[in-house]
Amino acid sequence: MQWIDRISLFSAFDFAGLAILFVSWLTIGWVIENPPSKLRSVSSLMVFYRREWMRQFILRDPRIYDAQILSNLRQGTAFFASATMIAIGGGLALIGNAEQLTNVASELTLMSYPTFVWEIKLIVMLFFVANAFLKFVWAHRLFGYAAVIMSAVPVDPSDPHCAPRAEKAAEIGISAARGYNRGLRSIYFGLAAAAWLGGGFALLCAIVVTNFIIWRREFASVSRMALLREPR
């Protein structure tokens, strides 16, 4: 089958949904990380508290509490990295048995497509899952770097190396959190891409729902209102 014939297997809804999927993924990620000053996202608001954490870390003795927090952060990234690795393995297994998937999908969607169509849809899903895996692994490593730098912060606040090293740890932690959030967004859009198995219109609907969920959690959630609430 020629490439032109293969491309013709996809409808206008498919191409529109695929384009909007990637544009939405890139756009909402940029807006969350670079929000307007009058509409700060939860991720951008947490940057202040991560820096404040390191300011309090300098004065705290002992620092067991901080070590526990960092350990919990690393466990979270490790969990998601493991989960995405399993998902990648499952996706590759499905591609290897695409003919069986074709039979099942045809029964569910009541539409018969060649194996090539289902393979492309699975590859798009795997793209987002693989990207999430890379982001979680890098975030896990950055949290490890932050732990080492925090261990190098002197206990004496008057030490000239104390504040600069704590600031470095804060910036590394902020970068780790940014990678972690990017991994989560990739999972969200990977789930949206899974709706493509039901057709282009289903993909478009899933994109709208995904964007709404992400936007609400970053810009209209209860947690955001709590971060913005001034103490009485």
Q: Please bin the fraction of helical residues.
A: over 70%
Number of strands: 0
User: For the report, how would you describe the main beta sheet?
Assistant: none
Strand content: under 5%
Number of domains: 1
Q: What is the general shape?
A: elongated
SSE string: HHHHHHHHH
Ranges where pLDDT stays below 50 over 5 or more residues in a row are none
What structural class results from the helix and strand content? mainly alpha
Mean pLDDT metric: 88
Total of DSSP H or I helical runs spanning 4+ residues: 9
Cα-atom Rg, whole angstroms? 22 Å
Topology summary:
Layout: H1 3-7, H2 12-33, H3 42-59, H4 64-96, H5 98-109, H6 115-151, H7 162-194, H8 200-219, H9 222-228
Features:
mainly alpha; 9 helices
Can you characterise this structure?
This protein is mainly alpha-helical and 232 residues long. The protein has one domain (42-221). The protein is 81% helix and 0% strand. It has helices spanning 3-7, 12-33, 42-59, 64-96, 98-109, 115-151, 162-194, 200-219, 222-228. The radius of gyration is 22 Å and the shape is elongated. It starts with a helix and ends with a helix. 27% of the residues are buried.
Summarize the model shown.
The protein is built from nine helices and no strands. By secondary structure, the chain is mainly α.
